[in-house]
């Protein structure tokens, strides 16, 4: 059975060119980039080149990039690093953030901070005006994601950034799901901090970065050496960082073609369901092109996912970080309420490198067959 992978929003396969470079770097670049000898300088050169390319990808300067182990650490460094550095006890976020943000905020809440969790509308969108209304004199941080990982809704980050410009409030966005899919310019977005991860865009797992705008202070969360300008201790993972930069370079070169392909995949998928007479609705609006979240009438998500898996289709009911949990999607609860039917019958298909139109059509046909069969029970 040839499996069809439609869960690229959870994680993505490494691009073959990235695998080749990663393997080469693992074999050849083993020096510590903090060492002054030639082997260390070789590693430092590779590290500096990767940092420069990644900074350029978001219109940042090289020193504004802090390498981390991925999106979760980047989010945690942004949130805890700000809280430990600034006076004030109020933070604004949204109800649909990734758990790396929500759980960090909940931890601060237990420590005496006051967190405002902004609602979203039924399209999964935060209103910039709600951010404005929630601002207080003691608001130290606003953290709102760029693109939602479950329904794909793209938040009004530039509008919020303009609202916060000139204030003492730090503005962070979790761009893990959007990076490599949408063009990102930190100056246009007017963000102070931005989190990304390599494994969402065909890079290796275990590597990411946090953009920290010049002039923004963060308290470090780890102590040891003086790597990353004393902001994140620990010897840098040079092979993974180099592979990360390669994956980003490929993503930027292919971004427009990917957008065209992904939108065509969505069209094929929905047309196939329509032709089969499946009743569904699409969750979310103003979406990123690679995420298709559907509420399918008459199904229960657990049995639906099992049936898809049996016929070789990998999809999910939402965030991979809550896989195995029977709790409803917090994103769909925020959009529709705790009793909504969408919470029990919504599934996320997400597209990425290696897919073909024929595979998407086959997956849609099998989805339609399973939907109709389960709806009869």
Short overview:
With 377 residues, this protein is of the alpha/beta class. The protein contains 14 helices and 12 strands.
> Helix segment count?
14
Domain module tally? 2
Query: Which structural class matches the secondary elements?
Result: alpha/beta
Computed CA radius of gyration, to the nearest angstrom: 21 Å
N-end to C-end Cα span: 27 Å
SSE order, one letter for each helix or strand: EHHEHEHEHEHEHEEHHHEEHEHHEH
| Proper CATH architecture of the largest domain | 3-Layer(aba) Sandwich
So what's the CATH class of the largest domain?
Answer: Alpha Beta
Helix proportion range: 40-55%
- Look at the structure and name the CATH superfamily of the largest domain: Type I PLP-dependent aspartate aminotransferase-like (Major domain)
State the CATH topology of the largest domain.
Aspartate Aminotransferase, domain 2
Strand content: 5-15%
- Biggest sheet strand order reads 2-8-7-6-5-3-4
Q: What can you see in these coordinates?
A:
The chain has 2 domains: 4-12 and 254-375, Aspartate Aminotransferase, domain 1 (Alpha-Beta Complex), CATH 3.90.1150; 16-252, 3-Layer(aba) Sandwich (Aspartate Aminotransferase, domain 2), CATH 3.40.640.10. Helix 7 (186-189) links the parallel strand 6 (170-174) and strand 7 (193-197). It is globular. The relative contact order is 0.17. By secondary structure, the protein is of the alpha/beta class. The strands form 3 sheets. The protein has a 7-stranded mixed β-sheet with strand order 2-8-7-6-5-3-4, with helices on both faces. The chain has a 3-stranded antiparallel β-sheet with strand order 9-10-12. A two-stranded parallel ribbon has the order 1-11. The chain contains 14 helices and 12 strands. Pfam families: Aminotran_5 (PF00266). Keywords: Iron, Iron-sulfur, Metal-binding, Pyridoxal phosphate, Transferase. This is cysteine desulfurase.
């Amino acid at each position: 059975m040839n499996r069809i992978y439609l869960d690229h929003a959870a994680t993505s396969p490494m691009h073959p060119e990235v695998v080749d470079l990663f393997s080469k770097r693992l074999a050849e670049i083993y020096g510590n980039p903090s060492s002054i000898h030639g082997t260390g300088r070789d590693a430092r050169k590779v590290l500096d080149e990767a940092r420069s390319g990644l900074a350029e990808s978001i219109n940042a300067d090289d020193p504004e990039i802090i390498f981390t182990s991925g999106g979760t650490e980047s989010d945690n460094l942004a949130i805890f690093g700000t809280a430990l550095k600034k006076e004030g006890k109020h933070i604004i976020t949204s109800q649909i953030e990734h758990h790396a943000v929500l759980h960090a905020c909940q931890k601060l809440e237990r420590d005496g901070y006051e967190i405002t969790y902004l609602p979203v509308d039924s399209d999964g969108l935060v209103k910039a005006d709600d951010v404005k209304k929630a601002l207080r004199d003691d608001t130290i941080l606003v953290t709102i994601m760029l693109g939602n990982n479950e329904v794909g809704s793209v938040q009004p980050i530039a509008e919020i950034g303009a609202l916060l410009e000139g204030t003492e409030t730090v503005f962070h966005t979790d761009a893990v799901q959007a990076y490599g899919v949408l063009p990102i310019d930190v100056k246009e977005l007017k963000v102070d901090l931005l989190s990304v991860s390599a494994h969402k865009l065909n890079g290796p797992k275990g590597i990411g970065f946090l953009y920290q705008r010049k002039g923004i202070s963060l308290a470090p969360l780890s102590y040891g050496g003086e790597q990353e300008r004393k902001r994140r201790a620990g010897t840098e993972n040079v092979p993974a960082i180099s592979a990360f930069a390669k994956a980003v370079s490929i993503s930027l070169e292919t971004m427009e073609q990917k957008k065209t392909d992904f939108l065509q995949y969505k069209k094929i998928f929905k047309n196939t369901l329509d032709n089969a007479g499946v009743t569904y609705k699409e969750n979310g609006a103003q979406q990123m092109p690679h995420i298709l979240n559907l509420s399918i009438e008459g199904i229960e998500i657990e049995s639906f996912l099992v049936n898809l898996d049996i016929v070789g289709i990998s999809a999910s009911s939402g965030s991979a970080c809550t896989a195995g949990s029977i709790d409803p999607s917090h994103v769909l609860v925020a959009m529709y309420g705790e009793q909504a039917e969408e919470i029990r019958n919504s599934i996320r298909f997400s597209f990425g490198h290696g897919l073909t139109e024929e595979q998407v059509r086959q997956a849609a046909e099998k989805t339609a067959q399973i939907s109709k069969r389960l709806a009869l029970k």
